[in-house]
From TrEMBL:
<protein>
    <recommendedName>
        <fullName>histidine kinase</fullName>
        <ecNumber>2.7.13.3</ecNumber>
    </recommendedName>
</protein>
<keyword id="KW-0808">Transferase</keyword>
<keyword id="KW-0597">Phosphoprotein</keyword>
<dbReference type="Pfam" id="PF13426">
    <property type="entry name" value="PAS_9"/>
</dbReference>
<dbReference type="GO" id="GO:0000155">
    <property type="term" value="F:phosphorelay sensor kinase activity"/>
</dbReference>
<dbReference type="GO" id="GO:0005886">
    <property type="term" value="C:plasma membrane"/>
</dbReference>
<keyword id="KW-0418">Kinase</keyword>
<dbReference type="GO" id="GO:0009927">
    <property type="term" value="F:histidine phosphotransfer kinase activity"/>
</dbReference>
<dbReference type="InterPro" id="IPR035965">
    <property type="entry name" value="PAS-like_dom_sf"/>
</dbReference>
<dbReference type="Pfam" id="PF02518">
    <property type="entry name" value="HATPase_c"/>
</dbReference>
<dbReference type="InterPro" id="IPR003594">
    <property type="entry name" value="HATPase_dom"/>
</dbReference>
<dbReference type="InterPro" id="IPR036097">
    <property type="entry name" value="HisK_dim/P_sf"/>
</dbReference>
<dbReference type="InterPro" id="IPR005467">
    <property type="entry name" value="His_kinase_dom"/>
</dbReference>
<feature type="compositionally biased region" description="Basic and acidic residues">
    <location>
        <begin position="9"/>
        <end position="18"/>
    </location>
</feature>
<dbReference type="Pfam" id="PF00512">
    <property type="entry name" value="HisKA"/>
</dbReference>
<dbReference type="Pfam" id="PF13188">
    <property type="entry name" value="PAS_8"/>
</dbReference>
<feature type="domain" description="PAS">
    <location>
        <begin position="37"/>
        <end position="90"/>
    </location>
</feature>
Length: 680
């Protein structure tokens, strides 16, 4: 509460009691007249709805009404005798004294709102905007000023809200004007009353030209049914949307997606229609082209399906890591002996139908090693893979499987939506072909019988010839009886070499025969692959002076359980090939490493020789297969070495592959599972 005795608030006040007048009347009559006038004025102030205050020329409050007391939160006795500045914030009080003094020097009426913006301060120190009207009055020849104070808080809030709404309307109007869609407003008679820039751009009529025109006549509107039906929908539902056909100023026809809303006045009478039209002419043209393309694609697919159904091989199109079926031909069901449903994963199909797959050597094929899955994961074709299908009725069918992956970007966009089964288009698609090779297997069986017979018949005479050649060379070396001259020794040495080569061929043929007859077995034992590899490299290095064999490994020992003789045979074949097919000599690298995360050991044999033509790489692991550039160079060979390598590695549970570029060189890779691996 204010201290009425504080000299800082009214230094001009002298000893007076609350309510005492700041004048000194000359006589009792003047005093009575003054008090009477003041009482009448006070009663008048109480009648006013505004907050009223009366101050003298020194700015001291002499009279207030109840509205002002309520507005500022003071009692009557707290205000009378105080300077007017007590109703202002403290930081404005000093400046207001000068303004008030200047005003009193030439006091004049000032209407509400004509003065500067003012701020009042309540007793609780809360501040609020106010406006004040001033009017000088004289009581018994003494000048006073009466002020009406009005709280402007609510009005200021209204003004701010009005400004915000106005700003939003301006923004909306700007957005409407800048919108690409054509936005127009029609009155109840369909005359255009608003036409934005989007409408000008679409229809090529300016707003000035369009205003007042009947929109349906101006645009020569073609309705999906009738104009009457559209108007009836607007009346019943208050809105309509659909496609309209309009004619532009230059005669061009456009198709628009139209949304229309009926606006009613306070009495519910239709007053305007808001219409938003979006040009979909190009979209509809593209959709039409797409429909034509789909129709053409469907026709081509029907022809393709007809062609595929005429082929004897089982042909499948699968998608994704689960190998879900997209399409198959008629031969597919006969191949499996069961129907593979479209969209069903291959693994689920095989398990559901009781179908089992085996390798050519008779080993069960793990489902994670399905041919399509291997091509799906690598993105590279898997060709000429021999498998055996065991069908639900127990019959076995030998097949040759090819899997060719396609990228989703090149194939999926061309497939109909119903064919892709709504699976993610990022998944790869693979074409898998199963060829029945029963007739080929029978021919191979007859050939294998002949090879087996010929091999066994050759083995004995070859051994005899080689034995006699050794004896002749040994006797000549000891000088017994008649010696051999240089020519004879050379011919006998050639005879021994030929016999050795024939014996090596005979052993390879015997291995092939055992593999084809499923009489081949592995004799596994703990083997240090580091020592084994060094032994093979040392032996083969002695056969060549033009090649440098280098062995790379960080392992002092690597023990695994394998058939040591057969793994030595694989390493020897691959390194011998690297030597043979690098006639110019050079470096040959052999690397060995262990991958503990995959539980396998990996070999790498690399040369910089003649390489393998790309067109012949898919067949390289077949029997009696040799690259044409090797034949042309006169390099001899049987074409059995890589076939045996593949069979031996796969029977160990491993994989073999290669990378090659003709004229640059080849790198062969093979891996073996670590059935037993101990680093010491």
């Amino acid at each position: 509460m204010m201290n009425s005795q504080d000299p800082n608030l009214h230094p001009e006040k002298q000893d007076r009691t609350s309510g005492e007048l700041p004048i000194q009347p000359d006589n009792a009559e003047l005093m009575i007249s003054f008090l009477l006038t003041l009482n009448i004025l006070g009663a008048f102030l109480e009648l006013s709805p505004d907050a009223l205050i009366v101050v003298d020329t020194k700015g001291v409050i002499v009279l207030v009404n109840t509205q002002l007391e309520l507005l500022f939160g003071y009692g009557h006795d707290e205000l009378i005798g105080q300077p007017i500045e007590c109703l202002l914030p403290e930081h404005l009080r000093a400046g207001h004294v000068g303004k008030r003094t200047r005003y009193m020097q030439a006091a004049h009426p000032r209407l509400m709102g004509s003065g500067p913006d003012l701020v009042g301060q309540r007793k609780d120190r809360g501040q609020f905007p106010v406006e004040i009207s001033l009017r000088p009055i004289r009581i018994e020849r003494t000048l006073y000023v009466m002020g009406a104070v009005r709280d402007m808080t609510a009005l200021r809030d209204v003004e701010r809200e009005r400004m915000r709404i106005s700003q939003r309307l301006r923004q909306q109007d700007k957005l409407i004007s800048l919108a690409h869609d054509a936005i127009l407003v029609r009155d109840a008679e369909s005359r255009i009353v608003s036409w934005n820039e989007g409408a000008e751009h679409l229809y090529r009529w300016t707003a000035q030209e369009a205003m007042g025109k009947v929109s349906h006549s101006l645009l020569q509107t073609r309705f999906p049914s009738t104009q009457k039906a559209l108007d009836q929908t607007l009346l019943q539902h208050g809105q309509w949307q659909g496609e309209l056909n309009h004619t532009c100023r230059d005669g061009a026809r456009v198709i628009v997606e139209s949304r229309q809303v009926l606006v009613r006045d306070d009495q519910g009478v239709p007053s305007a229609i808001l219409e938003i039209n979006r040009d979909v002419t190009e979209r509809r043209r593209l959709e039409h082209l797409e429909q034509e393309a789909h129709a053409e694609m469907d026709a081509r697919l029907n022809v393709l399906q007809l062609i595929l159904d005429c082929l004897p091989n089982g042909i499948f199109l699968v998608q994704g890591p689960q190998l879900r079926l997209l399409m198959a031909n008629n031969a597919a069901a006969a191949l499996w002996g069961a129907e593979w449903a479209r969209g069903q994963p291959q693994e689920e199909f095989l398990q559901q139908q009781g179908i089992h797959l085996f390798t050519a050597s008779g080993q069960p094929l793990p489902l994670e090693d399905l041919t399509g899955r291997r091509a799906m994961a690598s993105g590279e074709p898997v060709l000429y893979r021999q498998l055996v299908i065991c069908r639900p009725d127990g019959t076995r069918l030998p097949v040759m499987v090819d899997a060719i992956p396609f990228t989703s970007l090149s194939l999926l966009p061309r497939l109909p939506q119903e064919m892709t089964l709504e699976f993610p288009s990022v998944e790869r698609v693979v074409l898998v072909v199963y060829q029945d090779v029963s007739a080929l297997k029978e021919a191979e069986r007859l050939k294998d019988q002949f090879i087996s017979l010929a091999t066994h018949e050759l083995r004995t005479p070859v051994t005899i010839v080689a034995g006699y050649a050794d004896r002749l060379l040994a006797r000549a070396a000891r000088g017994e009886e008649h010696g051999l001259d240089e020519w004879q020794r050379e011919k006998v040495q050639e005879m021994k070499l030929a016999s050795w080569q024939l014996a090596s061929l005979t052993e390879d043929l015997l291995d092939v025969t055992r593999i084809q007859a499923d009489l081949f077995s592995l004799e596994r034992c703990s083997t240090d692959l580091v020592i084994l590899t060094r032994k093979v490299i040392k032996r083969l290095q002695a056969t060549t002076d033009r090649h440098q064999l280098a062995f790379q490994t960080t392992l002092p020992q690597l023990w695994v359980k394998v058939d040591a003789v057969r793994i030595e045979q694989v390493i020897s074949n691959l390194v011998s090939n690297a030597i043979k097919y690098s006639p110019g000599g050079g470096l040959i690298e052999v690397a060995l490493e262990e991958h503990t995360e995959t539980h396998e050991v990996r070999f790498r044999i690399r040369d910089w020789g003649m390489g393998i033509p790309r067109t012949q790489q898919a067949h390289l692991f077949g029997r009696f297969v040799r690259a044409e550039n090797a034949r042309a160079a006169g390099i001899r060979g049987t074409g059995l070495g890589l076939y045996l390598c593949r069979e031996l590695i796969e029977r160990h549970g491993g994989h073999i592959s290669f990378e090659s570029e003709e004229g640059v060189g080849s790198t062969f890779f093979f891996s073996l599972p670590c059935l037993e691996s101990v680093l010491q």
